[in-house]
Write a structure and sequence with these properties.
The protein has 4 helices and 9 strands. By secondary structure, the chain is of the alpha+beta class. It has a 7-stranded antiparallel beta sheet with strand order 3-4-5-9-8-7-6. A two-stranded antiparallel sheet has the order 1-2. A hairpin with a 4-residue loop joins β1 and β2. It is rod-shaped, with a radius of gyration of 39 Å. The termini are far apart.
Length: 223
């Protein structure tokens, strides 16, 4: 006698609680596709977060290994060598003061501005770490000087080693003066020479004393 074969029951269709019935093949496919999309989106966000963390870790490592100093970077430029290098390109005598030990320069340039005014500039740092700049403009007009000195007018004059200088003092509060606290101005042939900066009037007079030979040489440029 033959034994009847028992048919194994198939997997019951998934019943969707919201529908109260088994989901259709189309609904099953749509559900799986949505779950796959959500999984990929989650993986993308996770990968992005991991990438940002890795980048941040690299930045931290770079910051930690790069040597740093609390002291500002100061360049020490040989302004006399710079003056000698550019002197052949102009027809006036460029000022080149000999200053006592302790004075350094962070800039020495010959440039032409938008108004076609050529000027020689030496940026100096005093032994007390105060800024002092020497400007020598060739054939400058009044607007050049006014722009450099914020439109201020001279308050007096002083004669140093036979050279007469106009004296300027910044009337603004100390916190608003920037690098212009005091200034001396003189004309030497086609040159307008300005000494401007933070030091005291006594230091300015000492610089004017050092500049006197160069100013007299510049006066000869007009003859």
């Amino acid at each position: 006698m033959s034994v009847p074969t028992m048919k194994q029951p198939g997997k019951a269709p998934r019943v969707v609680a919201e529908l109260g019935r088994p989901e259709t093949p189309e609904e099953t496919a749509a559900r799986k596709a949505e779950n796959s999309r959500k999984h990929r989106a989650k993986q993308t966000i996770n990968n992005l977060v991991l990438s940002l963390l890795a980048t941040l870790a690299i930045v931290v490592v770079i910051v930690l290994i790069v040597p740093r100093s609390d002291k500002p970077i100061e360049r020490d430029i040989d302004w006399s060598a710079a003056a000698a290098a550019v002197q052949p390109s102009v027809d006036v005598t460029l000022v080149d003061p000999e200053l006592p030990a302790g004075w350094t320069s962070n800039s020495a340039t010959l440039s032409t501005d938008k108004a076609d005014i050529t000027s020689w500039y030496i940026g100096l740092i005093s032994p007390e770490k105060q800024y002092l700049g020497i400007h020598q403009a060739i054939d400058a007009d009044a607007s050049w000087l006014s722009g450099l000195l914020d439109g201020t007018e001279p308050v007096s004059s002083v004669t140093v080693d036979g050279i007469e200088w106009d004296v300027y003092s910044n009337p603004k509060p100390v916190e608003d003066r920037g690098l212009f606290h005091n200034a001396l101005v003189t004309e030497a042939g086609p040159s307008t020479i300005v000494v401007l900066g933070e030091p005291s009037p006594e230091v300015f007079n000492a610089i004017a004393q050092e500049l006197a030979p160069d100013v007299r040489a510049a006066q000869e440029d007009a003859r």
